[in-house]
Amino acid sequence: MEERLQKILAGRGVASRRKCEALIVAGRVKVNGQTVTELGFRADPVRDRIELDGKPIKSETLRYVLFHKPKGVITSVTDPQGRKTVIDCIDLKERIYPVGRLDYDTSGLLLLTNDGDLTNRLTHPSFEIEKTYEATVRGLPRQEALESLRKGVLLEDGMTAPAQAKLLRAARRAAGSAVIQLTIHEGRNRQVRRMCEAVGHPALELKRTQFAFLTLGHLQPGKYRLLNDAEVNKLREL
């Protein structure tokens, strides 16, 4: 059965579907010896010979990793400054890539996989995948601040979508601060930090505790585990 070329590439762990589209447009992909630059091109993943930069694309075992990212680790495959990346923390022979990102100074749940098609779906805004964070913020937010987060706040790049927000407790380690829980389905740059700042309670610490239905459980910072088949299938159903 023929499929779009970018879907085949993503399914074989080359990269996300969007990046695979860029590879095709750049003329780096051949099918049966012919360079393909059209995004609508379809190929048979079984019968056709598909090459990237002159090398055959082979099927890889698909891997799905749940990682407890510590602060001070880059959500990237490589870093030109030589800082530690999330890939450095995971010992797998397959090439895997982060699903979205967490900032350098943010900790918590991060998914990584070589399933480019699933990555595209989990990060596409139209699917509205929920992500939950615990933010240690300066001061004690009143109901007015929490209600603003629930309705959406105005940032420099526009209004945010309504969020789920609640006060959890006074912070134990930082005097004059509190911990709030915030659930969003958008993925703007440093969005949670900017939302907290916008309501007058800057985030001192930030941790992602949940992605869709997945949680950290007892996984310690710097550790990871492979998702089981049931979890992968449930992600696909989203």
Could you characterize what this model shows?
- With 238 residues, this protein is an alpha+beta fold.
- It has 3 domains: 3-56, RNA-binding S4 domain (Structural Genomics Hypothetical 15.5 Kd Protein In mrcA-pckA Intergenic Region, Chain A, Roll), CATH 3.10.290.10; 64-125 and 217-237, 2-Layer Sandwich (Alpha-Beta Plaits), CATH 3.30.70; 130-211, 2-Layer Sandwich (Alpha-Beta Plaits), CATH 3.30.70.
- It has helices spanning 5-11, 17-25, 116-123, 143-151, 191-198, 229-237, and strands at residues 3-4, 29-31, 34-35, 42-43, 50-52, 55-56, 64-69, 97-98, 107-113, 131-138, 154-155, 158-159, 164-170, 177-184, 203-211, 214-215, 224-226.
- The strands form 4 sheets. Strands 7, 8, 9, 10, 13, 14, 15, 16 and 17 form a 9-stranded mixed β-sheet that branches. Strands 3-2-5-6 form a 4-stranded antiparallel β-sheet, with no helix packed on it. A two-stranded antiparallel sheet has the order 1-4.
- The longest helix is centred in the first third of the chain and has 9 residues, at 17-25.
- It starts with a strand and ends with a helix.
- The relative contact order is 0.15.
The name of the CATH architecture of the largest domain is 2-Layer Sandwich
Number of E-state strands: 17
| Low-pLDDT segments | none
State the separation between the terminal residues, measured CA to CA: 25 Å
* Percentage of β-strand residues: 25-35%
CA radius of gyration is 20 Å
Structural class: alpha+beta
What is the CATH C-level name of the largest domain? Alpha Beta
Mean pLDDT: 92
Q: What sort of overall outline do the alpha carbons produce when their principal axes are compared? A: elongated
Multimerization state = single chain
Query: Largest sheet at a glance?
Result: 9 strands, mixed
Number of helices: 6
Order of helices and strands: EHHEEEEEEEEHEHEEEEHEEEH
Helix content: 10-25%
Domains (count): 3
